Amino acid sequence: MSCVEKAVNQSTNVTKSSSFSLVPEPEELRIVRIVVFSVIAAFALVGNCVVCRAVWRNIGPKPIAHSFISNLALAEIISIICLLFTFHAYEAPYSWSLGLVACKILEPLQVASLLVVTTTLATLAVYRCVLLIKPTVAKLTKRQTGCAILVSWVGSVGLSIPAGYFRAVNSYGENCDIYYCEETFPEDLRHHQNTYSVVLFVINFALPLLIMAISYFLISRKVREHVFVMKSIRDEESKAFSSVTKFSTCADECNMVHSNDKVVKGQVELDLIIKTREYKNNGGGEENTQDHRPSLDIYNKNTFELENDLLKLVFVLVFVFVICYIPYQVQFLLIEFNVEAFMLWPHRYTFGRVVFTLTCLPSALHPICYGTMSRFYHKAFLRIIACRNHRNSQM
């Protein structure tokens, strides 16, 4: 379809709804929104680069969740870089100026990175659920984790291929001087375009959200059961303690003397146990002091502490994702199903730009969450801020 034919179609669409026109975005709001987006992009790029660097350069114990978080950070870096290149096309004068090749690569790559983000968040939610509900289940190996990350990228890129293949740069305006990078299916495949959009919506948002909801429902139920069990144990302990107290006050002097003898013996045994543990903790003799191999118990303890920090962190990541992505996905459904009330809303453009900026916010908030809620990432951020490398911090 030529530029003139497109202009004719646009004019006919305007005549069908001659009383409708979009209200332009206020200039003050546009300036604030651009500044906010710039700050978000800067925080996202710097923060996620620090996260990837901290994980990749760490030579200590690496929990499996660290691999998924570094994958999440990498996907957010790619997404922000693509948005920095495509942001101009949605601002005045609203024209695509990067050519056909960039049109076919940047937008689909940004879609693929978002698919990886949502897939990784759902994987982290399931991982947290399994660790809390069935802690005895064997954890993923490094090879299995790498395969899972590779599958998420291959699948996401595969799903975004149609979005890149059918993209084209179309010209508009009286002089054909305004260009849009659009996803345009051929006439014989036009009926599949809506199906493809719905599939992307389900995989990119609906399915991960469902997985997260089920995971945290199971987690909350497990926590309630644990609280109930702990409360029952405390009640039983308090009852046993009260009965022992009553029995001890009613005991005769002979029994008290006999019990005191047992207490003395028990104290001696307890002192012996304590000394034995201190002996082991201090090195267990000359043979252990000469063994410089890292202790497996210390390794497991460090790994457990890192896992515990990440379990609390995952919930915040998922919460931020849901809050920031829901408005954009609602807008997507309203446009996809051509809801007349929304399509004729005068402030639809302004709402769309604000909601789009909101979807970029998690990329900047995630590194902040890492630095404030995880001791591992907190130390990594401090090393970067203090301009000290990892080796100097260990000296």
TrEMBL record:
Compartments it resides in: Membrane
Q: Which SUPFAM superfamilies does this chain map to?
A: Family A G protein-coupled receptor-like
Q: Which PROSITE patterns match?
A: G_PROTEIN_RECEP_F1_2
The membrane topology of this protein is: Multi-pass membrane protein
State whether keyword RNA-binding applies: no
- GO molecular function terms listed in the Swiss-Prot or TrEMBL record: G protein-coupled receptor activity
Q: Which InterPro entries match?
A: GPCR_Rhodpsn, GPCR_Rhodpsn_7TM
Protein name from the UniProt record: Orexin/Hypocretin receptor type 1
